[in-house]
Design a protein that fits this description.
This protein is an alpha+beta fold. The chain is built from 5 helices and 8 strands; from the N terminus they run αααββαβαβββββ. A 4-stranded antiparallel sheet has the order 1-2-8-3, sandwiched between helices. A 4-stranded antiparallel sheet has the order 5-4-6-7. It starts with a helix and ends with a strand.
Length: 242
């Protein structure tokens, strides 16, 4: 009996196996040789969502090297102006002090120059009463007249013996005759002041005026205080009166 069942199983003719084949079930072993695989079946429906798994322990890696700098962004919107600061008093004071120092140096220089010029003027001037006689150098009669007028003065013209003596002192000091504000250019032999007024005082040297060479139309005072007529183009010491 067992042998018959074995043979039957081997031959695949058992009624029980036939029944199982018809119902697509094999309860003991594979039914015959496998066939050719069929076409894939349609995807099944998604199953139910499972529970969230455990994240586990998270380990942070080391920071990498910084990347290259990106291009500069657009300028931002200007912020509101800040509060007004206090005035820079220190800077202003420093600047003012520097200006004051510079001015003080200039004043010192001017004072030194003024002192020097005072000494020069004192050496070249003589005061008689309210009149000052100031020597300004050598020139012809016409140029000397112009120089005095440019300084708001006039050529020296003594009106008395004291003023004439003061001019003689200047002549001695400089060893040069001094032109006076007197001439006879308009009328020969008629000496007048430059304003045309007649002479109020004279002190002619003996034999003068003689109009030597017919060209002596101006007058000069000599170191002895005496007067002599001279050529107007001759250079003498110019003395202005103030």
């Amino acid at each position: 009996m067992y042998l018959q069942i074995f043979i039957t199983l081997m031959l695949g003719t058992s009624p029980a196996l036939t029944t199982a084949s018809e119902t697509n079930t094999c309860t003991v072993m594979a039914c015959g040789n496998p066939g050719i695989p069929g076409l894939p079946g349609r995807d099944g429906k998604d199953g139910a969502k499972g529970e969230k798994g455990d994240q586990g322990v998270q380990v942070r890696g080391q920071q990498g090297f910084p990347g290259k700098a990106g291009p500069p962004g657009l300028p931002g919107i200007a912020g509101p102006p800040g509060q007004k600061g206090q005035n820079g008093e220190t800077a202003d004071i420093t600047s003012t002090q520097q200006q004051v120092t510079a001015l003080e140096k200039q004043v010192q220089t001017l004072q030194a120059d003024l002192s020097k010029y005072k000494k020069i003027v004192m050496l070249q001037q003589v005061k008689v009463g309210e009149k000052f006689f100031v020597s300004i150098g050598e020139a012809t009669f016409s140029n000397g007249k112009r120089l005095c007028e440019n300084g708001g003065a006039a050529l020296a013209s003594p009106k008395n013996a004291a003023e004439n003596a003061a001019l003689a002192e200047i002549v001695k000091r400089n060893s040069k005759a001094v032109f006076l504000d007197i001439n006879d250019i308009q009328t020969e032999g008629r000496f007048v002041y430059l304003n045309g007024a007649p002479l109020r005082y004279t002190n002619w040297k003996q034999g003068e005026p003689n109009n030597y060479g017919n060209k002596e139309d101006c007058v000069a005072v000599l170191d002895d205080g005496l007067w002599n007529d001279l050529d107007c183009e001759r250079k003498t010491l110019i003395v202005c009166e103030l």
